[in-house]
Amino acid sequence: MAISFDKATKTFYLEGKSTTYAFFINKFGYAEHLYYGTKIGRDPLFYTRGKGGRSCAATVPGEKVDGFEEGSSYHYFPSELAFFGNGDFREPCVQVANEAGDRICELLYDSHEILPEKPRMKGMPSMRGGETLVLHLYDTVSDFGADLYYTVYPDCNVIARRVVYKNCSNKVIRLKRAYSFSMSLPTQSFELMSLHGAWGMERRIQKTHLHNGVVSIDSKRTTSSATLNPFIALLSPGTTEDSGEVYGVSLIYSSSYVLKAEGVNDGQTLLTGGINDFDFEWKLKADEEFETPEVAIAYSSEGIGGMSREYHDAYRNYLINPRFAKKSRPIVINNWEGTYMDFDNEKLMAIASAVKDTGIDTFVLDDGWFGARNTDEAGLGDWYVNTDKLKGGLKTVIDHVNSLGMSFGLWFEPEMINEDSDIYRAHPDYAIKAPGRLPCYTRNQFVMDITRADVRDYIINSVNKILDENNITYVKWDYNRNVTESYSLGLPADRQSEFAHRYALGLYDIFERIIETHPNVIFEGCAGGGARFDPSQLYYFPQIWTSDNSDADERTLIQYGTSIVYPLSSMTCHFSVVPNHQTGRVTDAKTRADIAHLGTTGYELDTSVFTEEDKELTKRQIAEYKEMESLILEGDLYRTDNPMESNYFGYTLVSKDKTHAELTCYQRMGRPNAQLKRFAPRGLAPEKKYYVPELNLILSGSTLMNVGLLPVFERGDFKTVKYHFEEK
Ligand code: GLA
To answer: What predicted TM-score, i.e. pTM, was given to this entire model?
Structure first.
C-alpha cells in the first residue's frame, strides 16, 4: 500500500515513486502537515514541529493556553486545509457564510478511508485512478464537512488533491471561497516561477522571490488564459534546470482561478488555490456538495527539468485519454494559413491532392466552412455547411480526401456566436449579456451562455449532427475570446456569482456529451492559439494548438515554456510558409521542420502550390518525424539550453530505456567570430555506448554528457543541428 496510517501517532504517509507526503492529526483534531519531499522512512516526525515562543497567537478556540506550548494556535499549524475565523490569519482554503451570518468554520478530523482506486470525479476532469486517501473533516457547529482527496501514483511523483465541501445541515451555507488544497512548506526561501504570456507569445517563464505576504497569480477571464497559465512552482535556492528541490502546482481547471504562495510570519510558506474567489459565491443548500477542481502537485529534487518530467509522465499516464495518449497521432495539413476563409472545393481538394503519399494522413478544414462565414463578422453558431462555398457540401471534399487515402478533420468554435447569424437572430438570448449594458466585442463575436442547459443542448446537437452525418475523424475545437458581462438569464440574482464556475461545468458537460460519444474522433484544443492550454483541456483533447505564432524562432520560446508542465505530444506544432505570417521572418525549411518536430507535428500552408521537390521534402521530413515519434509520445525531455536566456535552444529526448535519444541544437543569430558553443546532451545512461551517426563515432553516455558536442551551424540565422544516439 502506498498510503498508510499509523494509528499510534495518527500519521498518514503517502508515497509516490520516490516521494513521501506526511501529515498527522494533532491533539485538537487538526490535520497538520509534516513533510513533503524525497522518500523517507515511515518514522515519527513530531520532532519537526515548531515549539513555543510565539507571542500574541490566538489560542485554539476554548484552550486557555498562553503562548505556543506544543503549537496551540491554528495560525501556526502547518496546514492541510486552512480555515477562517478562529485564530488563523493566513490565506484560508475555505470560507463560508452561515445562515446566522457568521463566517466561521472549524474543520477537524472525523474519519478517513483509503481507497485502492480513486472514484471518477463527477462532471469535472481529473487524473485517472490511483490509490486514494479520503480524509473527512467536519465542523460540528454548522454541520459543514470537507472531504480531502489525496491520490498517489506508483510511477510518478505527483499527488492529485481536491476537496469536496458538504453542507450536512438543514440550512443554506454560502461558500465564499472553496479552494482545492492547502499545503505548508517549512521555509520561505523559494523563488516562485510561473508562466505568463499573450496571443502569439504564450507561456514565458517569470520568477519572483517569495516574501512575507502573498504572491499570487490568477485569471478573472472565465478561462485559464494565455496571460497566466494555471501553474506555479516553488524553486529552492540555487535551483537549476538539473538540480534543486522544486514543488509544482498545476490546476486541472479552465475557468477563473487563483494560485497563491504566502510567506507566513513564522517562516513557513502556505500554498493554496483553486477556483478564483473573486466574483465567486456558491449557494450550498441542505445536503448539497460542492466539488472543487483537482490540483496536481509535483515534487522533484532534480530541478525544473525533473519537475517537468514528473508532469509529463503523470499527464501522459493518468490525465490524457489513454486511447490517444501514447498512440501515433495524425499528421495533418490544415488549410488556415493556406487560405484563411477564402476557399472553395477546388482549392481545398488541390491542397489535399498535393500531399497524397507524403505521409500527411489527415486534411483539416479550418474556419469558414459554415453559415455565412466569409469574414469573422458572421456565421458563428450556424453549424451547417455553406454550400455556396462548398458545392455539394462537405461530402464532396470528404470523399475526395478519403479517395486519396487520407482522413478528414473539421474546425468548430462551438462556444461562440456572431450577431450576424441565423441562430442569433432566432435566439439573441443565447449570447452572454448583462441587463441594460452594451456588450464588449472581441473578434466581432460573443460567448454563448453555456451555463444554460438549453444552450448546451443546441451546441451539442449541432456539432453531433455534423459528426454523425460525415466521415470525420479529427476535430479542432477553437475558443477565440474571453467572457465579459458575466451574467446568465438562467440564474437567479443570488446565484449570479456562480457564473464562472458554472461556465466550466457547462463546458465539461458539452465535452463529455460530444467527445465521449465520439470516442474514435481525436479532438485538438485551440483558443486563438494557446490561450486555454491547461490540464483540464488535456483530459479531453490529447493535443492543443500551441500558438497561432508558427514562426520557428518564436516557437523555440513558446514550446520551451509550454514544456515546463505539458508533454511534447500535447503540443501541436505546424510547419508553415515563409515569410512567416505572424512575424515576417524567413527561416529555412530544415529549421522549421526540426522545431515543428518537437511536438505533434503537422503542416499549415497552401500545399496546392507545392513543386515535386516540395513534395519530396515533405515526405523526407515526415519519415524523419516517424523515426523520432516514440520519443515525442513516451520519451523523457531534458532541456539543455534556454532560448529565453541565451542565443541557443537545446532539447535532448531520451527513450525510457535509454537505448536511443536525439539532441536538437538551435542557434538564433549567426555571428562572425562567435564563441564556440558546446551542447551537452542529458539523460543518457553514462555507462552505455552510443553510436552517433553524425560523427560516425561510438561514444559512451558519460563522455557525451560531460564533454558535449560542438555543432557547426550553417552560416546565417535560425539554424538547427541534430544528433542521434543509438545504443551499441
Ligand atoms: C484561431 C485559431 C487559428 C484558426 C483561426 C480561425 O485564431 O488559433 O488556428 O483556427 O482561429 O478563425
So the answer is: 0.98
